[in-house]
Each structure stands twice: as structure tokens, then as C-alpha cells.
Amino acid sequence: MTSSPALPAAPPSLDSGLHENGAKRAVRGTLVKVLLHERTDRDMELEPFAARCVRRGEVHELLTTDRWTDEPGARVDRVGFLGFVELDLGGVVDRGDTVLIGGEPVGTVLGFDGCHLPNHYNIVIHAPRLLTGRSLALAPETPVVFAPAD
Length: 150
Prior knowledge:
Layout: E1 27-34, E2 38-39, E3 44-45, E4 51-54, E5 59-65, E6 75-76, E7 79-87, E8 91-94, E9 98-101, E10 104-113, E11 122-126, E12 143-147
Parallel strand pairs: 5-11
Antiparallel strand pairs: 1-7, 1-12, 2-7, 3-6, 4-8, 5-7, 9-10, 9-12, 10-11
């Protein structure tokens, strides 16, 4: 009896362990710099993490994409840049969190790109269309909230 060759393992979904999550507090911050542009050739790569711990005082970049994927390592080219947020307190940002800027929902956290680490994460937000700081008329000092998914 011959054994058949083993199939390569599929990459784990970014949602691995989703049903292990319990309650958490919202992560809050303040917009400190507005960005105005969009790109269709950004070549970012989603990290294979469904969550990232963040600390008070850290500054991270927010950007949107209208493309959805749950593949670790997926390439993200279409992005709209919103700006940089300084976090008011530490916590956990999860894939699927709702992002509110100035109290208005912008989209949901799709994932994280670490190309600028250790300086900052790019927090990739899925939205129905590319959004920028200009298209949302953002201004410094606007509150940002990463609200837990229901």
C-alpha cells in the first residue's frame, strides 16, 4: 500500500482563534496628523496576526482599503491614507473592530502591516471605498475609537 503525498497546509486565516476572544475595552486615541493621498501600488503585506497589543502614547498610521481578504501575507495595493493616531490608553486592536473617527464609523480593522516597525504599525481599515483624510475632512485632535466587534 502506497501513501499519497501530503497536501501542503493552507495558511491560517487571520481570524484563527476568533471564538476564543472575550470582552475588551475600546481603544481610544486622537488624530495627530492628517494624510490626504491615495495609492494603487502600495504593496503592503498583511501580517498573520488577528490582533495587536498597543500602548498608551504610541502613534500608528491609519489607512483604508476597499479590498477584502483574510489571507495572511496578502498584498494590499489600493489604499487611502487617513492620518496618524496617538493612543490615549493601551489595549488590544482586533481584526473586525469598528473604527470611528469623530464619532462616525469609517470601517472595520482588516489587519496590520509592519513595514515601518519599530516606528509604527499601519492599521489597515476595510471600507466600502477608499477614504482619505481629505475626503473625510479630518482635522488634528479628532477622536478615534477602535470599538470591539459585537
